[in-house]
Amino acid sequence: MRILVVEDEKRLAASLRTGLEAEGFAVDVTHDGGEGLWYARENTYDAILLDIMLPVLNGYKVCETLRAEENWTPILMLTAKDGEWDEVEALDTGADDYVTKPFSFMVLLARLRS
User: Fold this and answer.
1) Range name among 64-68, 72-76, 79-83, 99-103 with the lowest pLDDT average
2) Number of helices and strands in the chain (H, E)
3) d(CA 108, CA 111)
């Protein structure tokens, strides 16, 4: 399975890459929304892990843009924003799932598998 991780916290992005690769996933990582959008347009992924608070374009805009372009790659928002309105906005822009930080890596893996 090929995963795109769009996460501006570099240490978290690196640990996600390490953990996902150890589980057999192929992983691309980018640290801003503009670059994440480019990667999602140019490559085929089985899922996208997308932070909300990103430089250049926020995760809501990336998700909304991909859905408007009829890119139906599953998007899991992985974010520190834990308010119910944040979750509603993410789902309304087209996200398939929403996980708040801090999170259990095992639960994240289960959500990716589903």
Assistant:
1) 79-83
2) 5, 5
3) 5
